[in-house]
């Protein structure tokens, strides 16, 4: 009986740890809801944030090119570059630099409670759509610029027209539950 | 090897000519940018963003040209410039490219760096896979030990340099057996590193100029 109970406790702990992504360096905590697959972080690489796959996927898909899967991901980096130090510059850099398109108006109600954020959308000719939300947090570094937070966060959804509305609901849920609390 | 405007050139006359042309191109670009800003002010260009739930049309304005080095960049270059320059010369790569990878650690000021001394983000996300460095010199050696072969000869070609770090040849074709710096978000990572390189391309020449003045050269 005791062994059975202990096994149950172990299973519960294991399940809980699988469902929560934590990144101490950038202060990210994210509970992974049903319908999302949290990709494992490569062990020998700098962890910039979680990658989540949407739809019917399995872990094998994580090792493929993300561009062919619907996904949500968070990419955090230190805010020490002039070109991306404000929200507007940072968003523009993501649209043009990462997603190779112009920033269009984002769908409504995309943001993170308690932080300033900016959002945009890039439509691609092959039907894929990128929705981008950027925000900043962390104690400013006065040796760089005392007026800007020290960490940039890019929260991004990659989807297509067919799944846009449903995936937006999931994305809004992620934005509502993610916690960005960098160590001060 | 002569060092002109933050870049190495085997032939000093050629180097000065390239840098003069580069300066002329930069001035021309600035002029075009100013014209573009004027165009934007007429409401004919820009891009939409949503800030705190409000759609806003932003007029694109070129970031002000940096004329000084931040205290943060200077502290980083004080620690890393000479060590990087020594290895970079041997591998025929612009030091600013290597220094740009320091954005991984907020240019040796943030995050894992504070515990490990690794400015280049060669650490994993857990305690089992952390690169530890006792000094900037050791850290730079670790960087070149890991990726030197892949970035050798890239000169001041940022695209070829980033491709090398990502396990590809200058044309972007994967090379069997080469390490990959970031596998899960290559687009975001490449943009981050290119931003770091742009920052160091601005800061390093100013830093060197100021350092030369202080040393009385």
Give an overview of the whole structure.
The complex is a heterodimer of chains A (184) and B (217). By secondary structure, chain A is an alpha+beta fold. Helix content of chain A is 24%, strand content 28%. Chain A has a six-stranded antiparallel β-sheet, sandwiched between helices. The longest helix of chain A is centred in the first third of the chain and has 18 residues. The N terminus of chain A is likely disordered. Chain B is mainly α and 217 residues long. In chain B, 53% of the residues lie in helices and 6% in strands. In chain B, helix 2 crosses helix 5. The two termini of chain B are 18 Å apart. At the A-B interface, strand 5, helix 2 and strand 6 of A face strand 3, helix 2 and helix 7 of B.
CATH architecture of the largest domain in chain B: Orthogonal Bundle
Strand order of the largest sheet of chain B: 1-2
CATH top level of chain A is: Alpha Beta
What does the main sheet of chain A amount to?
6 strands, antiparallel
Query: What is the averaged pLDDT score of chain B?
Result: 79
Shape of chain A: globular
CATH class of the largest domain in chain B: Mainly Alpha
> What value does the Rg of chain A take, in angstroms?
18 Å
Strand percentage of chain B, roughly?
5-15%
Poorly predicted sequence stretches spanning 5 or more consecutive residues of chain B: 1-6, 23-45, 59-64
Helical segment count of chain A: 3
Q: Give the helix proportion of chain A (percent range).
A: 10-25%
Query: Mind describing the biggest β-sheet of chain B?
Result: 2 strands, antiparallel
Name of the CATH homologous superfamily of chain A: Mog1/PsbP, alpha/beta/alpha sandwich
Which CATH-level-2 architecture of chain A?
A: 3-Layer(aba) Sandwich
Rounded to the nearest angstrom, the distance between the terminal CA atoms of chain B is 18 Å
């Amino acid at each position: 009986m005791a062994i059975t109970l202990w096994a149950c406790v172990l299973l519960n702990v294991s399940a809980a740890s699988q469902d929560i992504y934590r990144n101490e360096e950038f202060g990210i905590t994210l509970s992974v809801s049903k319908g999302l697959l949290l990709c494992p972080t490569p062990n020998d690489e700098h962890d910039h944030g979680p990658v989540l796959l949407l739809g019917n996927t399995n872990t094998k898909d994580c090792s493929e090119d993300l561009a062919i899967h619907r996904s949500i991901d968070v990419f955090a980096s230190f805010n020490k570059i002039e070109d991306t130090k404000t929200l507007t510059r940072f968003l523009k850099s993501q649209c043009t630099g990462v997603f190779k398109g112009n920033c269009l108006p984002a769908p409504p109600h995309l943001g993170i409670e308690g932080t300033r954020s900016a959002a945009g959308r890039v439509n691609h000719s092959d039907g894929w759509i990128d929705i981008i939300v950027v925000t900043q947090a962390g104690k400013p570094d006065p040796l760089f610029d005392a007026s800007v937070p020290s960490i940039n966060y890019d929260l991004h959804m990659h989807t297509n027209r067919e799944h846009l509305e449903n995936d937006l609901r999931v994305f809004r849920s992620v934005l509502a539950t993610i916690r960005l609390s960098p160590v001060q | 090897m002569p060092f002109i405007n933050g870049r190495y050139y085997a032939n000093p006359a050629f180097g000065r000519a390239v840098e003069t042309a580069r300066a002329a191109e930069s001035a021309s670009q600035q002029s075009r940018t100013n014209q573009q800003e004027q165009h934007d002010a007429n409401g004919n260009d820009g891009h939409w963003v949503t800030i705190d739930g409000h759609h806003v049309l932003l007029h694109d304005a070129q970031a002000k040209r940096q004329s000084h080095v931040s205290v943060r960049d200077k502290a980083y270059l004080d620690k890393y410039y000479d060590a990087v320059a020594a290895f970079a010369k041997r591998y025929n790569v612009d030091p600013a490219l290597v220094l740009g990878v320091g954005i991984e650690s907020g240019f040796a000021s943030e995050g894992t760096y504070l515990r490990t001394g690794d400015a280049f983000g060669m650490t994993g996300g857990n305690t089992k896979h952390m690169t530890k460095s006792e000094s900037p010199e050791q850290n730079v050696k670790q960087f070149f030990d890991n990726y030197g072969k892949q970035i050798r000869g890239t000169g001041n070609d940022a695209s070829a340099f980033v491709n090398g770090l990502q396990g590809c040849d200058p044309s972007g074709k994967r090379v069997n057996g080469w390490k990959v710096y970031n596998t899960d978000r290559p687009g975001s990572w490449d943009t981050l590193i290119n931003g770091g390189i742009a920052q160091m391309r601005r800061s390093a020449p100013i830093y060197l100029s100021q350092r030369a003045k202080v040393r009385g050269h």
